[in-house]
Design goal:
The structure holds three protein chains of three kinds.
Chain A (H helix, E strand, L loop, with lengths): L1 E8 L6 H12 L11 E7 L5 H16 L5 E7 L1
Antiparallel strand pairs in A: 1-2, 1-3
Chain B lengths: L1 H4 L4 H6 L4 H11 L5 H10 L2 H4 L4 H4 L9 E3 L7 E6 L2 E9 L1 H6 L1 H17 L4 E11 L10 H22 L3 E8 L8 E11 L14 E6 L9 H4 L20 H16 L3 E6 L4 H13 L2 E5 L12 H6 L5 E6 L4 H10 L4 E8 L3 E6 L2 E7 H6 L13 H6 L13 H9 L8 H4 L10 E3 L6 E4 L5 E8 L2 H6 L1 H18 L3 E10 L6 H21 L3 E7 L3 E2 L2 E2 L3 E11 L14 E5 L10 H7 L11 H16 L5 E4 L4 H11 L8 E3 L8 H6 L6 E5 L4 H8 L5 E7 L3 E4 L3 E4 H16 L5
Parallel strand pairs in B: 4-5, 9-12, 17-18, 24-27
Antiparallel strand pairs in B: 1-2, 2-3, 3-6, 4-6, 7-10, 7-11, 8-10, 9-11, 12-13, 14-15, 15-16, 16-21, 17-21, 19-20, 22-25, 22-26, 23-25, 24-26, 27-28
Chain C lengths: L1 E6 L6 H11 L3 E6 L10 E4 L19 H11 L3 E5 L1 H8 L6 E3 L7 E9 L15 E8 L3 E3 L2 H9 L3 E6 L18 E5 L5 E4 L17 H8 L3
Parallel strand pairs in C: 1-2, 1-3, 3-4, 4-11
Antiparallel strand pairs in C: 5-8, 6-7, 6-9, 9-10, 10-11
Classes of the chains: A alpha+beta, B alpha+beta, C alpha/beta.
Chain lengths: 79, 749, 228
Amino acid sequence: MKAKVYVTLKKSVLDPQGKAVQQALSSMGFNEVKDVRMGKYIELDLGAIEKTQAEQKIKSMCEKLLANTVIEEFRYELN
Amino acid sequence: MPTQTIEITPDIIAKHNVTMSEYGEIKKILGREPNLTELGIFSVMWSEHCSYKNSKNVLKLLPKEGKRILVKAGEENAGVVDIGDGYVIAFKIESHNHPSAIEPFQGAATGVGGILRDIFTMGARPIACMDSLRFGKIDSAPGSDAAHTKHLLTGVVAGIAHYGNCMGIPTIGGEVYFDESYEGNPLVNAFALGLAKKEEIVKAKAEGIGNAVLYLGAATGRDGMGGASFASKDLTEESQKDRPAVQVGDPFLQKLLLEAVLELLKTDCVVGIQDMGAAGLTCSTCETASRGNTGIEIDVAQVPQRETGMVPYEIMLSESQERMLVIIKKGREHEAKRIFEKWDLHAEEIGKVTGDGMMRVKENGVTVSEIPAKRLADDAPVYVREEKEPEYLKKAQSFDPKTLFSKTGDLNAALLKLLDSPTIASKEWVYEQYDHMVRTNTTVLPGSDASVIRIKGTNKSVAISVDCNSTYCYLDPYEGGKIAVAEAARNVACSGAEPLSVTNCLNFGNPHNPEIFWQLKKSIEGMRDACLMFDTPVSGGNVSLYNQNPKGAIDPTPTIGMVGLIEGRDPVTSFFKKEGDVIILLGKTKEELGGSEFLKTLFNVKSGLPPRLDLKEAKKLNDLLIALAKKGFLKSAHDCAEGGLAVALAESCISNRGREIGAVVNVTTDHLSNEAFLFSESQSRVVISVDPANLKAVEELIKPNIQYEIIGKVGGDRLQINKLIEAPVAVLSHAWRNAIKRRMEVATA
Amino acid sequence: MKFGVVVFPGSNCDHDCYHVLKHVLGQETDFVWHKEREISKYDCIVVPGGFSYGDYLRTGAIARFSPVMESVQKHAEKGKLVIGICNGFQILTESGLLPGALLRNRSLKFICRNVNIRVENTDSPFTRKINKSAVLKIPIAHGEGNYYADEATLADLKKNDQILVRYCDEKGLTGDTANPNGSLESIAGICNKKRNVFGLMPHPERASERELGSVDGIGIFKSILEMN
């Protein structure tokens, strides 16, 4: 089972990196970009594990370590 | 094995940058044809970067002996200088120009990483870094690519910060210089200095037959394949395609290596350590064996590998970062491994020291390469290159700056323009990204002529300056080489320190061009004469040749790192301190605007005869500064360099952020032009300020030694110079402080 | 007082804190390796600055799971003192000992320079020897010191007087130009509700000796000594 975890700053938290990228893009002429949010992408190889169990584990990993829930939110994909 | 079956063709030999005559030499050494792995090994060891084959012949001109020198240039990874009371310092400057041109962030970061490893593998804890950086212009101009240059500057500074900050070693200053000759070929010269007790210094030697050879640190990957030979090729458009030759650094891993190695050295189980830098495993194995007069045998199958399917050729030539070779006394391996494990590090025993003088590489027990270590490490060919005075020189030198004076315009505006020139301007934008205070030793922060670190538990401080005016070197390499050393020595003396020793980084173009080789030789001759006069032997450094871009070679740039010692007193800073202090100009101003920043900034002219330097005068001035500092008379001391007296006075007023203060100055102008009086770059001049109560005593010290003039007083909120300059310090400060920031922080279109 | 200075892999201000406590203030001080669990002999634990675990993933995120942090948690519950400086502050917020989080600097750059901070509250073991509203010149050196907390947390911090220091100018005025990293309400350091855990981004250990150009930071350490 492989997991892909995406961690981004919460909507309510200013993302200065995203803002800088947006400004750079717009100065390059990509004016259609309305918003940029930067984040982290993490791949995990869980080996042979059942999906429900994997789901439980991944959620716990995100809450404990991979994301800081004070400022970040996360989502994941399993396959 | 695949590497053994490939036939060595002239094409393969050429691809390794090995000439046919060198190939002949290799065959003579081996008594047979080399296989591909062996050819690869020779090619990296006999590259300019590792062997100095093109420069050795002129490098020997530099003085290397001195009463304080404990480890001489070329003997070990860095020179070692005695600073008394049982303490020694190890320091070196090294280039990472080509990797930084291709990938500025990682190129600069790994440059810092490499020089730090050179220091701590000698048993010295690194306590300071500095960098000499050179770029093209960051002002948009026709035919220049300012946007790319800014990208390089941003990346290089961030890379240096990334590595040094994470390691917890302060980057306490350096220089940043802008000139179009560096466009597309930036110079990144990283300096590091470490401290040890005399008995703690270890050698990079493989001694004691049967002792274990341990591989410590990151696993080996295919990164930086043949980086050493890569660094010795002209940088062409195709280098962009050489991207895999750039390594990625891991400063966190290196911080662990640092702590583990220093802890390990407290035990006595280490025989020798060497960093795997350029030419990786190849260089570290044959050099340690050569120094120890032994042989070394390793099995590449034991080498931790990050990628699968790597062949011996790749493993031997890889330049993966954060790796080192440790020779451990037989039977003490477990002690070492215990320390490594504490720091979550992995060490693998990959071989042993032998007695037959061979560097033998095996793969799963089968010998794949066998070369006499000493001959490989020390017997690279040495070339005497053809030399010729460059075509441009006479004409450039004969240019008379006075022909431009009708266009000088307002002198106040000229001063502001100079303060706004990135080469002169405050480098805050750069050094605020570096942690320059960690370890709480930095007693003179970046921005003064030299930065100073104290040695805790002693009454000693070390002052460091890195310097080179490459425009002078372009216009007169001999005088330029002299001035580079003299200015660095003067910077150090301005802080009150006695100059001790020099490390240098010789950045030049392609040495096969006789004009370039002439520049190299003349610069070295200038450096030699200055080093002899100041009694500051060269304790180490490196050579970076082939610094070319499609437009031609860079200006000759012999970067000097000067180290000085202060004992028993506070260091002196460059800025004015107190209302009422008396300002004195030491030295004599002459009509010397050739090669000046004034000509470059106002007229975009890089011509004229650069200033002449009288070495005896320079030495007298340094001795005087040290004597004044010893008596505690110097409130401030600032060297007159780029931009001359006017810029030196302005900087003395404005460089103490938040505590800017004015000055009123009246100087005898003799028969000088206004331009020369204000902006001439005559050498051996220093602006000092002293307490009026000490004036008489100060003059008594100066009088027998140096021509001087009492020129004014500190105070007010304006800088006035004769009737020529009058400006609020706030205006000067704003121009100087924001010059780089305002250029770097505009949105890149 | 007995101080323990925690050492994580990648800590690099550990020696600086040790130096001030041991050699400048003459206190009994030990380094505490991050795998240590027994810390009961210490009155005050210092979580120093640096790049613990290379700041990989997030600053302080991995260090908080070191064995010593469990003991630090208990140490704090007992009412004993904990001070986290720079990366130490980040570790304390990650571990939940202090509320909020530290984001990347507004400029997206690492910043090292002297700044001014104003002492907002002297009713704490860390500020009791300093005058209220005193302006201290203390360096910062961080890439992620931009303090953030949600509205409810911020309201709580204010209500309980947990904001101990704010960035300000030389005259003590707060505002955008005196805020080096974009911190919420110019917050430079906060304590917990029980007031025995303090985290701040500026480095008082770098401003505790005359030779270094400022002794404004020593007041924080001297306040701690008043515990006796």
